[in-house]
Amino acid sequence: MAAPMAGRLAALGRRLAPPARAWLPGLTQVRWSRYGPSYLEPEVNKEVYRKPLEGMSEEEKTEWELKTLQPIKATASNVTSSVFSDPTISKFTNMIMKGGNKVLARSIVTQTLEAIKRKQIEKYHQASEEERESIECNPYIIFHQALKNCQPIIGLCNVQKGGKTYQVPSPLKDNRKRFLAMKWLITECREHKHHRTFMHEKLSQELLQAFNNEGPVIKRKHDMHKMAEANRAYAHYRWW
Amino acid sequence: MEQAHSMTDEGEAGRRALWIMLRSVKGVICQGPKLDSGYFLHASARAWLSAAVNQDVQIPAEKPRTVFRTSESNPANHAEQHEGQHYSIPLQEVKVVFPHGLPCRFQMQMRTFNESCLMVRKPALELLGYLKNTSFAHPAIRYVIYGEKGTGKTMTLCHAVHYCAKQDWLVLHIPDAHLWVKNCRELMQSSYNKERFDQPLEASTWLKNFKTSNDHFLKEIKTQQTYMWSKRESTEKGRPLGEVVEQGLTRVKNASDAVGVVLKELKKQCPLGSFRLLVAVDGINALWGRTTLRKKDKSAVSPEELTLVHNLRKMVVNDWNGGAIVTTLSQTGSLFKPRSAYLPHELLGKEGFDTLDPFIPIQVSNYSQREFESCYQYYLDRKWLQHERASTEEGRKELLFLSNSNPWQMERISAYL
């Protein structure tokens, strides 16, 4: 009884604009920030600052003027203006991190990228001329493609009805898909592989397999799809 | 020259035809301004320049960029014009000359790129210059290569080793002296001297690699005294040194003593002049530091109580002639030394410095602008820098900033980009 009510209030809160939902009965603010509503997000990308003022349209000019006057929030410490920074890789590093040991997590991810690159470049140099064009050597492209291949299209949600909990197929948001793909990759490497192999070796192997649409993580995604297909009958239990 | 004089008589077309013929005689054309026949330059100077550019494939035609490769693969011919360029060593030669010398990240790079390319740098050229001018009648000069972490000391040493191997010297290359003073699994009491300790595993690996690189010498050099390994085994006087090495490899217990015998024989016979000896030691500060090894009663082992270290110390003293001693200081594998220490005084300590004094110090520093550009172009060419932003000007500036032109740091960063 309480779960659908909270769900409805949450849906209502999401639909209302931020100033209006500052207070709603039943909704207590758990997370709040020291920044007032007038604070703007920081712009880290250097390219934006290089655009000449004359080249911008009218709205952009007003936005730019606003930015010179309004206060701006401090940047998070994991955000850089480096040209090599990648938000997906940062998210993946955070998910690998255990106990706040970002140094170790980052080293694992960089070693994984290096391992992928080495394997692919070795293959590239030993392949014949025709095969060389089909071999992808960029570890970032491989990483993004592998992640995309692992993302499920449809997921299962627990819905309680009449005392029983049913697994109801429901669409997933982009964030949730990305999260599930990363989580499956990391869990697969941590649990189902030999514990004495290095994490970067296991991860690089998994990523290369996922890039070629094979391997246990792709299988898990297909299992999820099959379950959703099997529980098609309960789709009507979903009301959102 | 007769052809040049006849050019004035012929017309413009004839001149052009002669220029095309003379294009292959590059040496003559290169001395253009110095020749007294003034008509050489004025007419078809531009034709000559474009011809020269077409022949040298490395320089792209659009704008002058650093040339990062050279085809000169013999270190004896490396000169200042090759500074900053990479020269490649054929993989077969690498197996023979460097069975154990190259750093492990460089070996990984060799396997990935399917080629082995070293950069020619100023300290190495300086060292090669000194080695070329060594006088073999004078005592062996000691060269100590020092510098901050990751600046290229080991690679400079490998360059010198390659030069000496090409010049047919006998190369005694100890890849990392720190490996002899730490992490020893089997420490046995030496049979020769009760006070000292043997390290059979390290000694036998070193003997195996020494045999690979200097096989032909081991057949020619003969022992000058009899060595008794045990009651039944001995090497007679006059047998080739290869037998001593075989003895060390088959009877692993005697491996450290075999190493000692080899070093002693080489030091005695080098002044006679039949061969030139290069003693190349990487991480020489290990010989005078501390060890992490312990005796059975948990007391610490000092370096002179190890047979290998004891014999190597004798080798590094300059009381023999007919060769050179090139060494490297290394903080990376060192024990009980802070990371910021890189100067000879700090790493060698008083005892080591006094033993090595006098030596010629050679400092290796970070990449210069030109060398960094060369390294960057090499990685781009080998498809090592895969990130799409890495090939842009922004990416290059960021790499320069992040690595601070330090070769080790540059290699580590480009590994994951």
TrEMBL record, chain A:
Q: Which domain of life is it from?
A: Eukaryota
Q: What organism does the record attribute this protein to?
A: Gopherus agassizii (Agassiz's desert tortoise)
Q: What is this protein called?
A: Small ribosomal subunit protein uS7m
What GO terms fall under cellular component here? mitochondrial inner membrane; mitochondrial small ribosomal subunit
Keywords, in A-Z order: Mitochondrion, Ribonucleoprotein, Ribosomal protein, Transit peptide
Which biological process terms from the Gene Ontology are attached to this UniProt entry? translation
The Small ribosomal subunit protein uS7 domain is annotated at: 78-232
- Of which family is this protein a member? Belongs to the universal ribosomal protein uS7 family.
- Please indicate if the UniProt record lists Ribosomal protein as a keyword: yes
The record's subcellular location field reads: Mitochondrion
Please classify the protein's predominant subcellular localization into one broad category: mitochondrion
Q: Which InterPro entries match?
A: Ribosomal_uS7, Ribosomal_uS7_dom, Ribosomal_uS7_dom_sf
Q: What is the lineage of its organism?
A: Eukaryota, Metazoa, Chordata, Craniata, Vertebrata
